[in-house]
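Bench log, entry 3. Co-assembly request; chain sequences pasted below exactly as received.
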Amino acid sequence: MTDLLSVSDLTIDISTRRGELRAIDGVSFGIGRGEVLGVVGESGAGKSMLGNAVIGLLPARARIAGGQVWLDGDRIDALPRADLQHLRGARIGMIFQDPQTSLNPLYRIGDQITQTIRTHRPMSQTEALDEARRLLTEVGISASSERLAAYPHQFSGGMRQRVVIALALAGNPELVIADEPTTALDVSVQAQIIKLLKRLCQERGVAVMLITHDMGVIAETADRVCVLYAGRVAEIGAVDDVLARPRHPYTQGLMAANPTLTGPLDDGLRQIPGSMPTIAARPKGCAFHPRCSEALALCRDRRPPLITAQKVECSCFLYHQDSQALKAT
Amino acid sequence: MNVSATGLNPIVPIEASLVQAKDLERDFAVHVPFLRRLMPGFEQPVIRAVRGVTLAIPKGRTYALVGESGSGKSTLARMIVGLTPPSKGEVFIGGHNIWDPVSADEQRKLRRRIQMIFQDPLASLNPLWRVSAIVSEPMRVFGLMPDGGARAARVAELLELVGLSTTDGRKFPHEFSGGQRQRIAIARALASDPEFIVCDEPTSALDVSVQAQVLNLLKRLQKDLSLTYLFISHDLAVVRHMADRIGVLYLGELVEERDSVAFFETPEHPYSQMLLSAVPNATANSPSKGEPVGEIPDAASPPPGCAFHPRCPVAREICSRLHPKASQVPTGHASCHLL
Amino acid sequence: MSEASADFWKRVADSDLLYSFRRSPGAIIAAVVTLGLGLAALLAPWIAPHDPFDPAGLSILDNFLPPAWEEGGDARFLLGTDDQGRDLLSAMLYGLRISLAVGFASVILAMIVGVWLGLIAGYVGGFADVIIMRVADVQMTFPAILIALLLAGIFRGTAGPGSSDSATMMLLIISISLSFWVQYARTVRGSVLVQASKEYVEAARLIGVSSIGIMVRHILPNVLAPVLVIATINLALAIIIEATLSFLGVGVPSGRPSLGTLIRIGNDYLFSGEWWITLFPGVLLGVLALSVNLFGDWLRDALNPKLA
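Structure output for the full assembly:
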């Protein structure tokens, strides 16, 4: 299967007064049609920057220093501005964290959707209006004229996020990038939005890049998961494989630190010491080694390559074929 | 007189508890444009943020308030800690009413016994103050350690207690990570030797791996210093790891109050059941049990009868008419017509 | 103590502000010019070739001498002399002194009044807020010049022409600062509303720190950055307003000419060919106002986190 979105060896640098800092360091992944890839990481891992790089929305001081991004056979990492604008909306839909700021408070819901439709697809106003009704129904909002004429503030938080999803789908995109789409929502609303995203992905066959810090959201939504740590891929594989038996010590720690509704309570939560290094202070070798309880001597100096360890790709020397020999050194 | 506002005997006799809140209510006036206020027949609309909440926390225990945004949990906490005056009701710490102190001296003594840890660790520390000044402020205000040397020693001791280095006192808040900032906030909260600490979503701004550190720290401190916690959170999984007793708030009302173990085994109120089923489970790709629907309504115009009935999967005709009374359930009470 | 100050200087050297300063040539030039003019004003009694206020040193015969390089110029008077035979360069240095002094004094006065009223309006709120901000609104509807003219008129009408120089100066400073305090009050009030809702203020309230204590120890230091920016930009404005008022004859007493007074004096003779009396003070005023303003612009950008 060829992937719809394919990112290979992507490297992003940020220029600061302390020089060039590497935010994303050789990240590769692919997403197939109808697949949800969860990109999970804690703050500082670079997950949002990864999403922004794919849609060409990097901040002014950041630049792609290496690697390629391909969308369905087209290279999109070095497009001119005008092509990028067509790309966003028409081929890639975006859902952001805060539905409050993703919608223009001064325009009616219906107008915002029809406008977006007509920007990207050749439709008359009446056709676009019909399409807008269809989209709203699709995301679970009864598409009465009253709803179309409403302003964003007349909607609740969950409803607004549904409208944002409808907007993301308005251009009939092949890929949807959802950056923390449920973080600003209450638990009971979050569950509904997760279900909606999953259904849309299956029905429309769009590829979804779901960026989140929440392992629970990944478990409920994603098919595959990519765990980022300090701008690098720690582990990538099918959700069932990764969550049931995490390979990388960081993923293991993350899973153990996550409080759950089941399981024993006696000895507290397992914790990972320390915190994610800032971009300016990333350690040499494996970026996780100062916090890793199983670190080997060579983890301090050498960067572990991504290797396949029982179906899952993982960048850790513990899974290296010579790991026994490496331990001895 | 161990009778709560619900007319039921709580499991823990209220008078034996360190912290007691009796029939707390808080209304907020909705802002209305000036001209509309002059219209004939104008009635000032009121949001009833908290309505008739009674709860008690025994010494050394953790009571968790659970609810979604708009449930009134922060308002309730602010009334209990002494930041927002209640419209009605009383709050007692060790038998003293904090909203009606006998003297200014008693008020100071009461304040010393209550502390709070806030949600945003960066916003809760003055950015221009050194950590040592931040941590020692309560001692200075309460006149606990007039001697500068003794105060510095106590600051170093507190920083070590929360897992920071003693030299961190000379740094500024922006030099720390989120988790370390929350440790500083905890050190400040401990500076006046309080018995009771309100933790308002103390880890919701933190990453998972750091959240575990802070939660474990709070538990260890509770054991070592026999602290009493009121723990506010929207995250049921976190609450399960922290709480002895749980109160579920919906539109300002305590709809269910139970011991933690019993609550997570058999939640009685349909809203509690919905909340539990909505928690995404990271351990396995298990499909959710229930189907959460709808959202918490606007507190300015709550639905009649049981406030939860429009979202309730098992609502009956009576639920839209009559406000349910609390019924006794194992280890606590829940307010639902079906119980 | 020395360790603490070494620590302080290390922090300054490492700060983003200094980094940004070193990388903006405009700001460096503006700062150097401002500093140079400030020093020249401060040292005027020592560096000025003549004392323009010493009647004994003046000779009416020296009046209207052109700059030294012009025909008929005198090497003793580099930039020429005015109608009373005063050395223009010396008069300008002393005038600069007065202009800067009036500017600084009125900005500091406006800052003190405005910051306090803003703090009270923002933190106390309620009735105090309504009163202070309505007064500010009314104040904003009058141009600064109008207020100053009005005040000067009232003062002269009540005190009579024989009022002392220092009283006139005080009046000038008060009337200029009166048009500035509103900006400080509004900015501070807005910042206070933001800061007061932050949790560190709640934490202080929780342990019973008094309102005054919270305002002074917690909130005030955190709202000073925008105040500093306004003060710098206002300094340029205050200097211009003072010059305008002096030009109109309601400014500093004519016995102690400021730059504006010199321009007015020169204006009377502009068409009779004595251009230098107006031109040199005018250029100096322009350079001063421009450099202070440029420095203020840079400070505003450097302290604005949104642009960083």
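The radius of gyration of chain A is 21 Å. Residues 187-204 of chain A form the longest helix (18 residues).
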